[in-house]
Amino acid sequence: MKDRKPGTEKHSSAWRRSLSKKLLVWFQQHARDLPWRQTRDLYAIWISEIMLQQTQVATVVPYFQRFLARFPDVKTLAAADEHEVLKLWEGLGYYRRARQLHAAARKITSDHRGQFPTSIDAVRSLPGIGRYTAGAILSIGLDQRLPILEANTIRLLSRLTAYRGDVNSGAGRQRLWKIAEAILPKHECGAFNQALMEVGSVICTPRSPACSECPVVALCGAHRNQLVVKIPRPAKSKNYENVTEIAVIIRRGISVLLRQCRPGERWAGLWDFPRFAAAGESNTALDRQIAKRVRDLVGLSVVANGPFVTLKHGVTRFRITLHAYEAEVKSTIGSSGDLTRSGARWVKIGALADYPLSVTGRKISRLLLSEDFTPRKRPASAAQP
Ligand code: ADE
What we know:
By secondary structure, the protein is of the alpha+beta class. The protein has two domains: 13-230, Hypothetical protein, domain 2 (Endonuclease III, domain 1); 241-369, Nucleoside Triphosphate Pyrophosphohydrolase (Alpha-Beta Complex), CATH 3.90.79.10. 43% of the residues lie in helices and 15% in strands. The chain contains 15 helices and seven strands. Strands 1, 2, 3, 4, 5, 6 and 7 form a seven-stranded mixed beta sheet that branches. Helix 2 packs across helix 3 and helix 2 (42-52) packs antiparallel against helix 8. The longest helix has 18 residues, at 13-30. The model is unreliable at 372-385 (pLDDT under 50). The structure holds adenine (ADE). The site of adenine has 8 residues, from helix 2 and helix 11.
């Protein structure tokens, strides 16, 4: 190719042919042996692609295997309780993906007689499936000639084409989708797309790409122009938000109170200890806050009984400091119906493993499980003579 300003070159058909040939040969020899690569079942490929969104391959593998063992097909998933789906998803994060997967399985059962659809429009109309996921499922499963664009291919394609614009802008994305479409070979689009992702993920890594091992280095505009470290242009740094929350561990004998998070809450569908955003600093104010917020959330009158543990956790753009406090029940204000209506229930500490919990909820539950099952001793000053 003649020397042109980086990022402006049009890629000839010879360049495209060479790219697909090199990638396909390399993929045949170097593809990692991943469980979703043993199948052409659209259902299994769909589950893998949803799990792989924002999650590393190594994390996904055991989740994928457990999920497929329990829900081997669309009908089994559609018939399951959301509680069980969320339980198998616990720890993967972004729980909306699991709820949408479940909703999509129900839609496939009602609209497509339980068969995963094979047309791009039908696939894209399922909850939780956008252009990338639809293209990945149908190209990998059926070799349909559809492009894909996700984090790894965004990096690889912007380097290959020496694209110096903002890959997160609308214009940048549009341009990269066009490239992803233009480079598709006539056949073997599934292997080609997977090869792009594989090179992007194991060779063309963000910080120290292994250019010397790259099968397409000879075709790479960024490498030729010594721009590899500058492309893709760094994203604007995220504005993290620090939040402080309180979780309340209310005990009754060997049970604790759990509450199911409502739609719209951060952990919707999951169970958690009654939790709220902290306001103010002083401890007395905190005790009053705990009593008031627990009454509002679950209709129980409690007295705060001291700190249990403080945990730090990052989720999306939030950096959460969670102070877990213990509390005792003073009285139930209404009937036990109030508890049920508020989505709360008493759960034996030994049965906490059956509930899908938030990451911090699970950490607290492990700590509770590792204690004696007897309630904690009160401080000496409060002991009866
Ligand atoms: N990331 C997203 N989809 C993937 C796939 N099918 N294989 C490897 N990494 C991926």
